[in-house]
Design brief:
CATH superfamily of the largest domain: Nucleoside Triphosphate Pyrophosphohydrolase
CATH class of the largest domain: Alpha Beta
Bound molecules: zinc ion
Radius of gyration: 19 Å
Number of domains: 2
Shape: elongated
Largest sheet: 8 strands, mixed
């Protein structure tokens, strides 16, 4: 960080502010402390007639890999609304959310993923700006080696575990890169 976004000064220092435990960027001119906290990524496992809807990524990172719909939560929305919006953007479908399924920590890149279980209200498999292909997969067809992210793999693996045990347990996982 070079310039203060509050006053425009270049007097930015990286110090532990009084009463804090972590180093922060602090403006020496206006005393603003800049806190950088993890981002929340919200998405879902979209189910339709016993199959899972996956999106093939038309954007970086992991271009061309399969993905559960999801993305960064926006200010002013709930996690539920964020999951619905991201699913609409990436998969062009409206969903009904049921319950939280998994929480996945990525401490080294400062992200937390939340995946809900959802059902697709009306299917539409036409591509979107963010997905080059949309496809329904049987559970045994999931392309494990072509999944975009660890968070997806975790959500889908634990979904199948729940299914086998007839549970609706919420799973918490982490990946340290
Ligand atoms: Zn300032």
């Amino acid at each position: 960080m070079k310039f203060c976004s509050n006053c425009g000064s270049d007097q930015i220092v990286f110090i532990i502010p009084k009463g804090d435990n972590n180093r922060r960027f602090v403006c020496n001119n206006c005393d603003t402390i800049f806190y950088h906290n993890p981002k929340i990524v919200v998405g879902c496992i979209p189910l339709y007639q016993g199959k899972i809807l996956l999106c093939r990524r038309a954007i970086q990172p992991r271009f061309g890999f399969w993905n559960l719909p999801g993305g960064y939560m926006e200010n002013g929305e709930t996690v539920e609304d964020g999951a619905k919006r991201e699913t609409q953007e990436e998969a062009n479908v409206e969903i009904t959310l049921h319950h939280l399924h998994s929480v996945f920590n990525l401490p080294t890149v400062n992200q937390v993923f939340l995946h809900f279980i959802a059902t697709v209200n009306k299917i539409d498999l036409s591509p979107t700006l963010e997905s080059s292909e949309l496809r329904l997969f049987e559970f045994e067809e999931i392309p494990w080696n072509e999944l975009a992210f660890h968070s997806n793999k975790f959500a889908l693996e634990t979904f199948l575990q729940n299914k086998e045990k007839k549970e609706t347990k919420v799973h918490i996982g982490s990946f340290w890169k």
